[in-house]
TrEMBL record:
It comes from the Bacteria. Residues 1-32 form the signal peptide. This is Fibronectin type III domain-containing protein. It comes from Streptomyces beijiangensis. Residues 265-359 form the Fibronectin type-III domain. Residues 347-365 have a biased composition (Low complexity). InterPro entries: CBM25 (IPR005085), FN3_dom (IPR003961), FN3_sf (IPR036116), GH (IPR017853), GH13_cat_dom (IPR006047), Ig-like_fold (IPR013783), TAT_signal (IPR006311). CDD domains: AmyAc_bac_CMD_like_2 (cd11339), FN3 (cd00063). Keywords: Carbohydrate metabolism, Glycosidase, Hydrolase, Metal-binding, Polysaccharide degradation, Signal.
């Protein structure tokens, strides 16, 4: 890559807020908080817990707390009765002995339970609230269940009190605490006093000023997230004050004075439907309406041995997995509004589960020539959501704007991809390139390029009955290959589990406790499971330490750097991982930043702060990566797309990784399959030069060749020696190949004896697809320096760039798209299409803006809305039936164009695997001839192709030629055939009729908007 723009958050390491993924408004903590710097702010002293439980949305006749101190025994069912605390709250104080917390559930004493959707609530010590599934640390009743504030005067305040209104619209908190200090007086104990609902979007609290005229104030959600006016605290006066979006209005009027209290409940959810598949269920319903807006739903499930389970959810779809087999479950749904009003229960819906799905059997690579298989490229997490239960937003959910769109970054999954395999087959594709599948770890890791555990499939992509193995097997059953995107160059910024993970300084002081999660022994990050006490699936407590680790080499561990974050927070040494901080050992990771993208350091330094660069010349690193990717070869994947291939020395590829791939595929599936295991590398050469800025080491075609010199056995030194040797030889002394070219009109056996084992993405064509003619002429120019360009993966745009290094998805229009496709599907190479391009999805939108804008506004938007409904395909490009929105998608002009192109290419071997020539072809356009001959099978296919422009083909074999587009027949007796210009987006493919199995097919498919 020239610049790592696609998925890398290239932020300075000193900007701490960017790592938080939360709005500046809500991430600050109290400037004057009294907690010692080494003590977690949210922790409470003592070995007891006072648990408050919200009753308004339950409306039970009685409330019981059934609990077990950490490491202790559970109370006898139904537990301890809870007593009234204040309006809408009950409470119970329990003795924990020496335990640091408790596991808890709640029930009405008559069999109805709230057990956190089967996971129990994990609570700490001190004062804790549980409100509609949300755990926080605050006192909603202001202390002991009574409001300690003085009675307000008729105007709402008096000379020694202050009434504070706080707007919740922006922060979205369900619990708000006021942490304050009267002028010159002591601060309240963290987290402060609970504020009560005033009206929609507002909470309030009246407090005693102890004879002073004002107060310093901060606000928090009771669970470690703060608003302290960007480190300055809020200065409020006596009387009535308003704080809204960091703006203070003193001596204000009551913002709720003219507001009529909302007492109207939402309408009852309608059309509730439940369906079951194996041991999973999906529940859907029509949205409710409300005079102030519906804020969520409460789903009650009965059935099975676990009793009644109540789940709070914001969407109108609930997906559950891991249920009991052969069990009938009944669901009812209630709607809630912001005032806490709750509707009556919906009509019940039932679903009966089936068998527990057996573990998927091992797959087997299909093993056919990859040039036969057009490729459809998907970002799995953004394609289709088959299981909402594994959706995750991460710590960037709010900051990015995804939360506002109800569009979590991890949304699509393998289950969704399995459900839409017929859509992809119906388009005519027989290979799918999917983004990396390994467990990721970063602030924004939905794309898969921040690998953390390379030996584990990311659970956010899998479901019961829809594991990665299930996807491979399901695709193979339909004749579709799976190409897995793999990363050898780098791990996440948190290292690679099983090889090395850094420990960073993470003091949980009054500034940073919102970010550093308390370490929970026994909890293992998997991206999916919510850590109970922090409430996060992106928990990071295992990464942080306030004590210097044994053997640490990072200098000045934990000491202030002297710098501040933009919010005024103290920055510490060893707080953020990076190549020069000495937190990563040189054994496993490189120790430098790239200075020259076309220099040697681009192959041995870090691309970005969140991409820790492996020392791939080290045998331990090599073995870690080889072992990891052997696992996926064993599962039966059909090929690897190699990310950032240019950032590993070619000699390392040729010595270690490429032979290891071939060895494992041969061991598993045999030599023929190994020959057809498709490895295609990303070598980011984003210029129009044949050789990237004159550097052979940074040019795509360079990676298709074996080494031609022996180097020292030391891989580190060999990489330097190889770089210098090839760079000094220069561009004029590189190998050449005729493997892509016809010899006159004859096909000749290609010479792959010098092939490295890595094919390439055709960056030269990609960069020039702003105009198909430019792509054609530039592509041809590089083919003699590529080992075999008939294996090039060819695309217009991708998850990184559009043509000419554009940051936008291709926006050339439908006619240009049709022309580009016509060229890709007939010229040498393997046509590859980025998901949604078949309908010009997100044309002109920025491909990637990281978390600075919602994914819905980018080229990586969720595609599933266009796939809703059913589709069945009995063959490639053949859709038997389609309903719903997917039927509309399949009716689009470019879809019809694409289906027919795939039909034509699939029927003519010359278009799949043929060599080409432009010799004797006049007309100056995108015109060429192709031939493929295989004497072992008796296949001989010869075709004349004219894309957009007219042409005359001279010195060709005499005989009968039939056009696959129109069915036109031409007799050639003098070695010449002339084709009139078919027009933009259209083409002609005249196939020589050689009889028998090599007979010309004639017209293939039916006329469409372009092919006619």
């Amino acid at each position: 890559m020239k610049r790592p723009t696609r998925r890398r958050l290239r932020r300075p390491l000193t900007i701490a807020l960017a790592a938080s993924g939360l709005l500046a408004l809500v991430t600050a903590v109290p400037h004057a908080a009294p907690a010692p710097s080494s003590t977690p702010v949210a922790a409470a002293a003592g070995n007891s817990a006072t648990v408050f439980y919200y009753t308004k949305t339950r409306n039970w006749a009685a409330y019981n707390l059934h609990f077990a101190p950490d490491g202790g025994s559970w109370t006898t069912v139904p537990g301890a009765g809870m007593e009234a605390a204040c309006t809408d709250w009950v409470k119970k104080t329990v003795d924990l002995g020496s335990a640091a917390g408790l596991a808890a559930t709640f029930n009405n004493g008559q069999g109805t339970w709230d057990n956190n959707n089967g996971s129990n609530y994990a609570l700490g010590t001190g004062t804790i609230t549980v409100k509609d599934g949300v755990v926080a640390h605050s006192d909603p009743c202001g202390g002991d269940g009574t409001d300690p504030s003085p009675s307000p005067s008729p105007t709402g305040t008096d000379a020694t009190s202050a009434t504070v209104f706080y707007s919740t619209t922006t922060v979205g908190w369900t619990t708000v605490n006021l942490h304050y200090a009267p002028t010159g007086k002591a601060w309240t104990a963290v987290p402060g006093v609970g504020m009560e609902a005033a009206c929609t979007g507002w909470v309030k609290k009246t407090v005693d000023l102890q004879g002073t005229s004002g107060l310093a104030a901060t606000f928090n959600n009771g669970n470690g997230t703060w608003d302290n006016n960007n480190g300055n605290n809020y200065a409020l006066s006596s009387g009535l004050s308003i704080v809204k979006d960091t703006k203070v209005t003193n001596n204000a009027t009551d913002p709720c004075a003219a507001v009529v209290p909302d007492t109207k409940a939402p309408t009852v959810p309608g059309t509730v439907k439940a369906s079951a598949s194996d041991i999973s269920t999906v529940l859907t319903w029509e949205p409710s309406t409300d005079d102030t807006g519906v804020t969520g739903y409460q789903v009650t499930r009965t059935g099975g041995t676990k009793g009644t389970v109540v789940t709070s959810i914001a969407s109108t779809v609930l997906s559950e997995s891991g249920l009991e087999p052969h069990t009938t479950y009944t669901y009812t749904v209630k709607a809630l509004d912001s005032a806490g009003n709750i509707s009556a229960a919906s009509a019940p819906a039932t679903a009966t589960t089936g068998d527990t799905p057996p573990p998927a059997t091992a797959g087997k690579a299909l093993g056919t020539d990859p040039r036969k298989d057009p490729i459809y490229f998907v970002l799995t997490a953004r394609f289709y959501d088959g299981d909402a239960s594994n959706d995750r937003g991460g710590n960037q959910d709010v900051k990015s704007g995804n939360a506002a769109n109800q569009d979590p970054m991890f949304r699509g999954d393998f289950k969704g991809l399995v459900q839409k395999l017929d859509y992809i087959k119906g388009l005519g594709f027989s290979a799918i390139w999917i983004t990396p599948v390994v467990l990721n770890r970063s602030d924004y890791d939905y794309h898969g390029y921040h690998g953390y555990d390379f030996y584990r499939v990311d659970p956010r992509l899998e479901s019961a009955g829809a594991s990665y193995q299930d996807l491979i097997n399901a695709a193979h059953a339909k004749g579709i290959k799976i190409y897995q995107d793999v990363v050898y160059n780098h791990s996440s910024r948190w290292g690679a589990k099983g090889l090395f993970t850094p420990t960073v300084y993470g003091v949980r002081d009054s500034q940073w406790s919102w970010y550093y999660d308390e370490k929970q022994p026994g909890f293992e990050y998997d991206g999916l499971t919510v850590e109970p006490k922090s409430g996060k699936s992106y928990y990071n407590g295992d990464l942080w330490s306030t004590a210097e680790p044994s053997g640490n080499t990072c200098l000045n561990w934990g000491k202030p750097t002297g710098a501040k974050s933009p919010e005024g927070y103290t920055l510490y040494n060893c707080q953020w991982s990076g190549p020069t901080s000495k937190m990563f050992p040189s054994t496993y990771y490189h120790q430098c930043w790239i200075g020259n993208w076309e220099g040697e350091d681009s192959r041995s330094c870090w691309l970005a702060d969140d991409l820790a660069d492996f020392n791939t010349e080290n045998p331990e690193v090599q073995n870690y990566l080889i072992g990891a990717y052997n696992k996926y070869i064993d599962m039966g994947v059909d090929g690897f797309r190699v990310d950032t291939a240019v950032h590993i020395p070619r000699v390392t590829w040729n010595r270690r990784f490429l032979p290891a791939i071939q060895q494992r595929v041969t061991q598993d599936w045999g030599a023929d399959t190994a020959q057809n295991f498709y490895v295609f590398g990303e070598v980011g050469a984003f210029v129009n030069d044949k050789w990237n800025r004159g550097s052979v080491n940074h040019s795509a075609q360079f990676y298709t060749w074996k080494e031609r010199k022996e180097y020292t056995a030391d891989d580190t030194q060999a990489a330097l020696d190889q770089y210098n040797y090839e760079e000094q030889l220069g561009t004029g002394n590189q190998p050449t190949s005729a493997n892509a070219f016809l010899d006159g009109n004859a096909y000749h056996a290609p010479d792959h004896s010098k092939f490295s084992g890595m094919n390439i993405i055709d960056m030269r064509m990609h960069m020039n697809f702003g105009d198909a003619h430019n792509a054609f002429s530039n592509g041809k120019d590089s083919d003699d320096s590529t080992n075999d360009a008939t294996y090039n993966a060819v695309y217009v745009d991708s998850h990184d760039y559009g043509p000419n290094k554009s940051s936008m998805r291709y926006t050339g229009g439908q006619d240009a798209w049709a022309e580009n496709m016509a060229l890709m599907w007939t010229f040498r190479g393997i046509p590859t299409l980025y998901y949604g391009s078949e309908i010009q999805f997100q044309a002109g939108k920025t491909i990637d803006c990281g978390p600075s804008c919602p994914l819905a506004t980018t080229g990586r938007a969720y595609y599933g809305d266009h796939l809703e409904g059913t589709v069945t395909a009995s063959d490639f490009s053949k859709v038997d039936s389609a309903t719903g929105e997917v039927a509309n998608t399949l009716a689009q002009p470019l879809v019809k164009h694409l289906q027919r192109l795939n039909q034509i290419r699939r029927a003519i071997p010359a278009l799949q695997m043929g060599q080409y020539s432009t010799d004797g072809v006049s007309g100056g356009g995108m015109n060429f001839k192709r031939r493929y001959t295989d004497t072992s099978t008796g296949v001989d296919s010869f075709a004349l192709v004219a894309v957009t422009d007219g042409a005359t083909y001279s010195a060709i074999p005499n005989g009968t030629y039939k056009d696959a587009v129109t069915g036109d027949v031409k007799q050639v007796t003098n070695g010449t055939l002339t084709v009139s210009a078919p027009g933009k987006g259209n083409l002609r493919v005249y196939v020589l009729d050689l009889g028998g199995k090599n007979a010309a097919p004639g017209k293939i498919g039916t006329d469409g908007p372009y092919l006619r």
